[in-house]
């Protein structure tokens, strides 16, 4: 016996679906407006993001100094200076050895070009010097025809470099202020929030901060792993400048896609110049193998453990962020996914049937009165 559909139940289901769709559209519109606002104020948001990521690395030292009686200003100043010295030292480890072998490197590049021309002249390409000369002349003609385009691109590149320097300087100053006054932020924020938000917002902020710290530490660990593996490979092949290349690989790990490509290109170029074509191919194979293991196995596994996200979620987040915003999207994709996960977990806790009331929440008082668990001593005046 067939059963007919209930018109009342069907209308109720459609009404529920319509309301749910309308609410979802409102949320999506709000997210779209927020993203547009962030894009409009990106020149301010980007230095703040970089400063927060740097602070997650340097804040433990500043906190340790404060807990041992140092004034907040002095602790932040010493920590900032030490961080700058570490960065400068890393750059020195790269620049000085390369500069000391600049002459040998230049002659090696010339020899490499000559070897490439000899290889191109033989089978299977059989490209003669006349053809190479014609190609160079054609390239020069193209350059002359597009001088205006090259000038505009160059000026754009110079503007990008200037903006990068300004952003870096601003991020360093912001990092100093975050180190100096960051431990007072959550109590101040709690006082500004009305009602239940005075409890919920500090808790979410504390969890988000811990998540960012886990992300940066995991990224540093992945960079160190890349540097060690590639450094061992370069040493085994006999490539010079192993230490500068390893340091460059570590620093490049913090710049998605471009950092790894640039560090790998430099390593292959030096191998080609000093060790020949075969060694360069071996180095290229080592770098590709390490990068594949890092991008598809090590990084998703390490970050998923530190952020509480599945490795597949991390991999998809990086892919989506890169497709939407390029390099910046790849850099911010994982922390943004972690922030969404933190917010979702907290909302799920609060929406559970046995969730405690705000005043009974055991984490609320700790988040407001003691944003960092290790800050057990009073702040010196």
TrEMBL record:
Cellular localisation: Cell membrane
GO BP term (any one): transmembrane transport
InterPro entries: AI-2E-like
Keyword list, A-Z: Cell membrane, Membrane, Transmembrane, Transmembrane helix, Transport
Transmembrane regions listed in the UniProt entry: 12-34, 40-58, 70-96, 161-179, 227-255, 261-290
Gene Ontology, cellular component aspect: plasma membrane
Signal peptide: none
Membrane-topology annotation of the record: Multi-pass membrane protein
Segments of this protein annotated with the region Disordered: 354-381
Family: Belongs to the autoinducer-2 exporter (AI-2E) (TC 2.A.86) family.
Name the record gives this protein: AI-2E family transporter
Organism: Kineosporia babensis
């Amino acid at each position: 016996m067939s059963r007919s559909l209930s018109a009342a139940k069907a209308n109720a289901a459609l009404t529920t679906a319509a309301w749910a769709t309308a609410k979802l559209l409102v949320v999506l519109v709000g997210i779209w407006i927020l993203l547009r606002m962030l894009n409009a104020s990106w020149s301010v948001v980007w230095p703040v993001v970089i400063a927060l990521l740097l602070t997650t690395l340097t804040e433990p030292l500043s906190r340790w100094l404060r807990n041992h009686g140092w004034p907040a200003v002095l602790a932040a100043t010493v920590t900032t200076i030490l961080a700058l010295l570490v960065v400068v030292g890393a750059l020195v480890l790269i620049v000085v050895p390369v500069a000391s072998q600049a002459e040998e490197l230049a002659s090696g590049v010339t020899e490499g070009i000559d070897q490439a021309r000899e290889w191109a002249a033989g089978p299977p390409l059989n490209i003669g010097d006349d053809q190479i000369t014609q190609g160079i002349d054609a390239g020069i003609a193209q350059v002359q025809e597009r001088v205006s385009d090259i000038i505009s691109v160059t000026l754009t590149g110079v503007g990008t470099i200037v903006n990068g320097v300004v952003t870096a300087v601003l991020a360093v100053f912001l990092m100093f202020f975050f180190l100096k006054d960051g431990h007072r932020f959550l109590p101040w924020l709690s006082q500004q929030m009305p009602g239940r938000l005075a409890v919920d917002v500090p808790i979410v902020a504390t969890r988000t901060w811990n998540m960012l710290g886990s992300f940066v530490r995991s990224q540093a660990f992945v960079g160190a792993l890349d540097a060690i593996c590639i450094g061992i490979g370069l040493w085994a092949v006999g490539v010079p400048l192993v230490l500068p290349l390893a340091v460059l690989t570590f620093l490049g790990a913090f710049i998605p896609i471009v950092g790894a490509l640039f560090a790998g290109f430099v390593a292959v170029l030096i191998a080609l110049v000093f060790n020949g074509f075969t060694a360069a191919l071996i180095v290229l194979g080592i770098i590709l193998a390490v990068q594949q293991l890092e991008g598809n196995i090590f990084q998703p596994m390490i970050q998923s453990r530190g952020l509480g996200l599945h490795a597949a979620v991390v991999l998809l987040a990086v892919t989506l962020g890169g497709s939407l915003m390029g390099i910046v999207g790849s850099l911010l994709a994982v922390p943004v996914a972690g922030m969404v996960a933190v917010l979702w977990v907290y909302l799920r806790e609060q929406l559970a049937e046995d969730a405690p009331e705000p005043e009974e929440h055991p984490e609320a008082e700790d988040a407001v009165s003691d944003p960092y668990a290790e800050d057990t001593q009073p702040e010196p005046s």
